[in-house]
Amino acid sequence: MNEKPAAGWEERRLWVFASLLVLLAVYQPLFSSSLVPSARDMIHYFLPLKKAFVEAVSAGQVPWIDRYRWGGVPLFAAPGAGSFYPGIALFLALPLAAATRAWFLLHLVIAVTGAYRLGRSFELSRQQASAGAVLWALSGVTISMVGFLSSYSAAALLPWLAFVTHSLLLEPARPRRLAAAAGVGALLLLTALPEWALYGVVIGFCIGLQHILFRLKGEGPSIRPMASLLALAGAGILAAMIAAPVLVGSYETARESVRGPGGGTNTTFASKAALPKVRWTELFGDGLVTDWTNSLSDKVEDYPYFPSLTPGIAGWALVLVGLLLGRARAVIPVLLVAVGFLLAIGSATPFFGLACAVFPPLKAMRFAEKHFVLASFGLFWLALMGLGLLARRVSARTRTLIAASVVAATVLEKGGFARGLLGMAPASVLTIEPPVLASVPRAEGDSLRPRIYHHDAHAPLPIFDIQNLEKSAWWGRATVQPAFASLFGRGYIFELDYDLTLPAPVFEWTRLLQKAVPAQDPIAGRLVRLVGATAVCRTVERAPGLFRPTMTPVESALPPFRFASQVDRDPDGMALFQRFLNDGVNPLTAYVEGSPRGPVAVSEGRVLNLEDRADGLFLEVEVKGPEPAYLMLFRLRPAVEEAFLDGGELEVSGMDFGFAGAFVPPGKHRLLFRPSTSGIKAALVLGLAGLVLAGLLATGRPRFSGSAGVK
Fold it and tell me: Which end of the chain has less Cβ packing within 10 Å, N or C?
């Protein structure tokens, strides 16, 4: 793992560009047409989040709230929004479709250059490092993430993280290397994906173990363990400082979410969607169970998190070389592969339960298959090792031939599959709204976002179980599956999801609806009306096999922000919920957990004016008195927990199990509700300080005074 002396910029650029040209040829349809990636959650989750952010900033508002999801959720802390990730600038500068293509191209460049630099640090020639870059860019994990903007960003950053960690360990006294390691670490944190941050830490730890192993064997450069440890700790602290807004925002939102400490997460939850045994053969080739680019399989319950698992035949050949020739050097990457695989298969072995016991946050990370990232990077590491060890045994001409063969074999084997995973669709899917939305008014400016309840989410019809993924995606857009409607100015309620912005109580509502809707229980319709939905989107079967999406107005729809006619308060949540059900889901009674127990006298109130802005919900209200009135807010509590009445602080209480409300005194008042901002504001100051410090390190003295390192 000696660091290779840097090649001249022109020479290095030539080989990096060669790798990029090969990959651009693989993804040629993305850049030579108006098509946009539409696979997986791209247009049903990530792009709506980006549009909500851009909409807020374009209106000159701080994007505290996504007004579309669940009637309003925190936006800064949403894991898929990437609000503080620098790449968000692409969506501010370009139309949605163009920004999506630019995002993909940018992170393709990041992945290639990072893998190239890592290969060079492993003593690979420029040709071999370029081949290694293609291996990572077309690895199973990387090409599987094209439908997830944030995860694709994180996958692109992993080789860079390994490279800067390796460089810092070699020369911990160099401030620029510390700044580089902190910068890459901060970027990984800014993607707002806790799982990938964990993977980065584990990979960095393994790089450190490899250095220790080399030192014990007397191979490679001699490092100073204490100096290296201090440098890594400093880089980690600086990275956390820079990414403080994301860390603080995610923590504040996640602590009460379904994936937080009170959400009931456990080993069973975390082991769901593990890599099934039937797919283990796909470690050695794409599509051996089924062609995941256009179909599902009756052998696997759900669509896999990583449709591709294999590094390819060429990759495996190099892994084998690395194992045979590397011997002791291969121990650490093999360990990484083993840990990643054992975590990915979940509860199939006792290892997963043991890992959750040692590191409890694992229990909050759904989709056990995600952990295969570690195995994939370990295989990539072994492949780079194999390339380097081969280079020592063959001539320069043969090295070039091997590198070219690796690129050709990888592209031929995986190029078509990689293109297929993009799920390309015309850019018009982002601009032309489905006809079913015609009857629901589009929200403009600061007007209230109309709320749609997606009936099919809780009672899916056979049309959504078809094997053809392209047709399934078409139906998803035609029936405006959440959150597709928000691309066109409509919100939605009762979405099925488990991310960090979903509080545990409202997750229970979705579980209740999954039982009530198929059973045609009237409680489902009452719940939909309770939360202020204005329309129900439902697919109906007009004739055998003939399905049609419809939009039905909610009868006597209620505003989501209204005053209660009575308040029922009880510290016993279960008893309160039982009364809620016994009362038939009374939409004008607020059920508030708290003391003292019993009904609370309230006055009549009315909303005079409303501005539903991204930087807060502004209300002008009037309360007749003599008692205070109770304002019911059917917006998730984390989105309204910071409240002001005429400029002074107002206490917000939990209401109707996951939503919020507040007592308002008699008179006319101006109210403001928004997510808690104090933590993020303080974190922004810390983040700015971190950036300044990183800048000083990057442009400062060549070495730390008095530090021990290797020149």
Answer: C
Q: Where are the domains of the chain?
A: 41-427, 433-553, 561-676
Residue 34 has a pLDDT of: 80
> Quick check: 184 and 157 in contact, CB under 8 A?
yes
pLDDT at residue 710, rounded to an integer? 30
The CATH architecture of the domain made up of 561-676 is Sandwich (2.60)
CA distance 181 to 167: 9
pLDDT value, residue 165? 93
Q: Is the dihedral of CA 312, 313, 314, 316 positive or negative?
A: positive
175-214: pLDDT as tens digits: 999 999 999 999 999 987 788 989 999 999 999 888 877 7
Instruction: Please name the residues in contact with 643: beta carbons below 8 A apart, sequence gap of 6 or more.
Output: 649, 650, 651, 652, 662, 671, 672, 673, 674
Q: What is the mean pLDDT of residues 406-421?
A: 92
Q: What are the distances in angstroms from CA 194 to CA 41, 78, 185, 641, 679?
A: 18, 12, 12, 24, 19
- Tokens 């994939």 belong to 376
CA–CA dist 645, 469 (Å, integer): 50
DSSP-based helix, strand, coil % in the chain, nearest 5:
55, 15, 30
Residue 502 has pLDDT above 80, yes or no: no
**Is the separation of the CB atoms in 197 and 188 below 8 Å?**
yes
Q: Sign of the CA dihedral 346, 44, 616, 553? A: negative
| Residue 260: predicted pLDDT | 63
The values of phi and psi at residue 605, to 5°, are -140, 160
Cα–Cα distance, 603 to 608 (Å, whole number): 16
Q: What is the Cα–Cα distance from 351 to 607, expressed in whole angstroms?
A: 56
The span from the CA of 589 to the CA of 195, in Å, is 41
Average pLDDT rounded to a whole number, residues 309-315: 95
Rg (alpha carbons) of the chain, rounded to whole number? 27
DSSP letter assigned to residue 360: G
* Residues sharing a CB contact under 8 Å with residue 201, sequence separation 6 or more, in sequence order: none
Number of DSSP helices (H) and strands (E) in the chain, helices first: 23, 20
Q: Which of 42-51, 189-198, 247-256 tops mean pLDDT? A: 42-51
For residue 561, give every residue at least 6 positions away whose Cβ sits within 8 Å of its Cβ, in sequence order, or none. Answer: 448, 532, 607, 610, 617, 619, 631, 632, 633, 634, 635
The token pair at 628 is: 């205070």
Look at residue 542 in the predicted model and tell me its pLDDT: 82
CA gap 572, 347 in Å, rounded: 36
Ramachandran quadrant class, 469 (left: phi over 0; alpha: psi -120 to 50; beta: rest): alpha
From its phi and psi, is residue 708 left (phi > 0), alpha (psi between -120 and 50) or beta? beta
Q: How many C-beta atoms surround the C-beta of residue 581 within 10 A?
A: 10
Please list the alpha-helical segments (H only) found in 327-466: 331-344, 351-358, 372-391, 396-422
How many Å separate Cα 428 from the centre of its chain? 25
Cα→Cα distances 193→148, 498, 529, 558, Å: 11, 13, 34, 36
Distance, CA of 288 to CA of 426 (rounded, Å): 29
Identify any residues that bridge with 36 across adjacent strands, giving them in sequence order. 425
Tokens encoding 617:
């919900």
Query: CA-based diameter of the chain, in Å?
Result: 93
Q: Angle, to 10 degrees, between the axis of helix 396-422 and the axis of helix 126-137?
A: 20
